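Notes to self after the call with IL:
- keep both proteins in one doc
- input above output, always
- annotate only the second one for now

Protein 1:
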Amino acid sequence: MIVALLNQKGGVGKTTLALHLAGAWASQGRRVLVIDADPQGSALDWSAQRAHCGLPRLFGVMGLARETLHREAPELARDHDHLVIDGPPRVAGLLRSALLASDVVLMPAQPSPFDGWASEEMLRLLGEARVFKPSLVSRFVLNRAAARTLIAADTISALAAGEPPALTATVGQRVVFADAARGGRLAFEQPRGDRAAREVRALAREVEGLTP
């Protein structure tokens, strides 16, 4: 399965979710490769930091921020159970290529009235991709959601009724995710990371269930 984390808005947690999904699947014995399709190279930086700290390799990370991604990803997928694409913000050609490469597109969103769930352009690109790939599955992922807040509850209700719908699994606003970005460690490798790890595992299970 090829899963892409895409959203034109920066700062919604694409890289964090991509790395943690990959880690959840790798910990279950899946062969996983993360493709860093963001010219900023955040996933590659995380991988380099992990190696610098002498931590064991959980999954591969490679840079592929070019518009031929949709032609190269299927070949890479033959040697892996899952490919996870960490997508770019606001690079239309790369976004198109990532969409066409994917089986599942996840669009992270935060529970904020100022944070649109997807721009008009993102939804337009998704519609264009479905012309060429009708089987493409897309879902919103509610990320950085504070537990038991009215705005989070309202957002979940709104997304559940929308199109594309939201996944049932949500991911909270947790310090361990920020520590993961800085230190090259995933949530399940950190003290007090149990709750975050459970959320990620629930997300990984639901995503795996989206395709036959």
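Protein 2 (the one to annotate):
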Amino acid sequence: MKPTRLTDSVNCAIQGILYAVKTQRHMRNHFLAALLILAAVLFLRVSSLEFTLLAISVSFVLFAELINTAIELCVDLVSPDYHPIAKAAKDVAAGAVLVAAIGAAVMGYLILSRYIFPFYKEALGMIGTPTEMGTLVAILCVVITVVMFKACLGKGTPLEGGTVSGHAAFAFAIVTVVSLTTQDPISSLLTLSLAIMVCHSRITLGFHTFREVLFGAMVGTLLTLTVLVIFMRLQ
């Protein structure tokens, strides 16, 4: 029955949101991102206009995800079997969410970067700039550590599989070196994006699990940072 009272309509809307959160992993991720942005807004004390723009961007992403969920449910109801048009409808709806998310990411970057980047540069400046010798030793230490993990645990090959992802370790070692060398947030973000792509490819190809890739990223980052700091302190 169609709700006749305002409270009934609101309850139906809330039930729809809860259903999307319970059944859609991306919806939960969007809400988590919204909480992180809210925490950043409170900590960084952005202006009222900037907060309004961020709120609109976040709301638009959540709105797009809700519409995407509704479209998927309708398509599944009308066409439970596979049909190319049903697939196209779902893909277009997912594309709408992607466009909204990209727009929100750009908006968040333009607003929050001018608050976060100065702290980031200051933190990198406190660590210092790595030397060429320190960089070489750090990269070699990461490679040797990954090989030792794979040899001792007897899982995987030097290039495929294993308890720790060598590709992830090497990629995040490079991210650490580039970040400390340039002390430029843009360079850090670009190299981090490439490292994440490398990690995602290892999971997609089935060579590693998420845990193995995460372990590799931690090994690459922490070991590289430790070696570089030691070398800089010995200078």
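Annotation: The chain has two domains: 6-118, 128-234. Residues 84-127 form the longest helix (44 residues).
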